[in-house]
TrEMBL record:
GO terms for molecular function: quercetin 3-O-glucosyltransferase activity; quercetin 7-O-glucosyltransferase activity. It holds the Pfam family UDPGT. Belongs to the UDP-glycosyltransferase family. The lineage of its organism: Eukaryota, Viridiplantae, Streptophyta, Embryophyta, Tracheophyta. This is Glycosyltransferase. Keywords: Transferase. The keyword NAD does not apply. PANTHER family: GLUCOSYL/GLUCURONOSYL TRANSFERASES (PTHR11926), UDP-GLYCOSYLTRANSFERASE 76B1-LIKE (PTHR11926:SF1464). The keyword Cell division does not apply. It comes from Mikania micrantha (bitter vine).
Length: 454
């Protein structure tokens, strides 16, 4: 953790996260980091999914974009499930005037160095330009994923987005050989000009137009991708492994259960599988039961996060037959994930491959099983399986035998030992990158100097 610099007056940085857990966490970690480096912090946020402000007594919070309860464009939107993401379309289309007004007030009251927004807030670039305010972008997924998104027009042109011939799913993607065609199909949209395709296209365009890009990653993890990014994007890139500096606990939107720790403490090293599918995924009851049976059949101990709402049509885990989980398993609603991953009893992580989860696992040297549901998750899974080689690709077929086999491959088999060794080596590389003169250390220093130069 960093020392605070109290001697000089603090310069203010405004941060504007996307209001979803996987985006709030890295932005608040970045805010903590910049505060520790001597900057004042203002967070712009929607009322929707607002983090607990009392966890951040040193930050100023300003709530924007959804203060009007009568604005039916927003008040009619559900707060859970995928439809909650429709807010992104509304705010990106209609949010500029309100954001400009808010920024004008802030700029009039004190000196602001820059604004840092989530890359998916693409509408913020023109607002920042109109105020001559430098805008940096926080991209919350990998460099590899960004380059894949930037290639969508090409993928569309090659016919991958609207593929009729299902025999081609296992083919390598032309011009992007790490990916398989099925990884692109998994995204579930048909054209680079449909609403999600357009939003991602705008995200790429306005990220390239920004004054700088901050990535939750480190150079040694994605070296070829970094070379491409540096070649293709004039704005400087800064790669900082946030989980190595701060945990994401203080920005958790759900209460974290800690009651399982005495049980976890008693388990032998590397003997427990941690299972969590992130903050937005859902499964049918039938698939939920297959997951439960697969875990039990693997005969490994497990700690399973089942978020309320994960099982469609159920409040929590009601469909589970009594006694199925037995003594080997613990089920909780939400956990302090990074602490769990850092625990010596944890031997592997079965994940939906959201970038935060994937990267937190890398930072703790924990091998993974990948079951991507949507979006960047398929890209993360592919890269981690085939390039970094730190896990096995299971997918979302949800059959108990396949599940128990995958668990045993990683936890018990010789193959798993090799995968776990790769994960340990990657963690060491992350650790070395943070030492004085290391790539992540230098990147953070450059970012601080860059922001201070505005
Ligand atoms: C979403 C997308 O799924 C993901 O692909 C994209 O990269 C970011 O937005 P999410 O589903 O929330 O993210 O997954 P992920 O990116 O893994 O973030 C989940 C966060 O919740 C992690 O920081 C994790 O530590 C935290 N978490 C998860 C907990 O604190 N407790 C839990 O029990 C589970």
């Amino acid at each position: 953790m960093e020392n605070q610099t109290e001697s000089k007056p603090r310069r203010r940085v405004i941060l504007f996260p996307l209001p979803f857990q996987g985006h709030i966490n890295p932005m608040l970690q970045l805010a903590n980091l910049l505060y520790s480096k001597g900057f004042s912090i203002t967070i712009l946020h929607t009322n929707f999914n607002a983090p607990k402000t009392s966890n951040y007594p040193n930050f100023t919070f300003r709530f924007i974009l959804d203060n009007d309860p009568h604005d039916q464009r927003i008040s009619n939107l559900p707060s859970h499930g995928m439809a909650a993401f429709n807010r992104l379309f509304v705010f990106n289309e209609h949010g500029a005037d309100e954001l400009r007004h808010e920024l004008e007030l802030l700029l009039a009251s004190e000196q602001v160095s820059c604004i840092i927004t989530d890359a998916l807030w693409h509408f913020t670039q023109s607002v920042a330009d109109s105020l001559n305010l430098p805008r940096l972008v926080l991209r919350t997924s990998s460099l590899f994923c960004f380059l894949a998104y930037a290639s969508f027009p090409l993928f569309d042109h090659l016919g991958y987005l609207n593929l009729a011939d299902k025999t081609r799913l296992e083919e390598q993607v032309e011009g992007f050989p790490v990916l398989k065609v099925k990884d692109i199909v998994k995204l579930g949209f048909k054209s680079s000009t449909d609403p999600i395709g357009q939003m991602l296209g705008n995200m790429v365009k306005q990220t390239k137009a920004s004054s700088g890009i901050i990535w939750n990653s480190f150079k040694e993890l994605e070296e070829p991708e970094l070379e491409t990014v540096i070649r293709d994007i004039p704005a400087p890139s800064f790669l900082i492994p946030f989980p190595k500096h701060f945990t994401a606990s203080s920005s958790s939107l759900l209460d974290q259960d800690r009651t399982f720790f005495p049980w976890l403490d008693q388990q032998p090293p590397n003997s427990v599988l941690y299972v969590s599918f992130g903050s937005t995924t859902e499964v049918d009851e039938k698939d939920f039961l297959e997951i439960a049976h697969g875990l039990v059949d693997s005969k490994q101990s497990f700690l399973w996060v089942v978020r309320p709402g994960f099982v469609k049509g159920s409040t929590w885990v009601e469909p589970l037959p009594d006694g199925l989980v037995g003594e080997r398993g613990r089920i909780v609603k939400w956990a302090p994930q990074q602490e769990v991953l850092a625990h010596e009893a944890v031997g592997a992580f079965w994940t939906h491959s959201g970038w935060n989860s994937t990267f937190e696992s890398i930072c703790e040297g924990v091998a993974m099983i990948f079951s991507p549901f949507m979006g960047d998750q398929a890209f993360n899974s592919r890269y981690m399986t085939d390039v970094s080689k730190v896990g096995v690709y299971l997918g979302t077929v949800w059959e108990r035998e396949e599940i128990s086999n995958a668990v045993r491959r990683v936890m018990v088999d010789e193959e798993g030992e090799c995968i776990r060794e790769n994960a340990r080596v990657l963690k060491q590389k992350a650790d070395v990158s943070l030492m004085k003169g290391g790539s992540s250390y230098e990147s953070l220093e450059s970012l601080v100097a860059y922001i201070s130069s505005f």
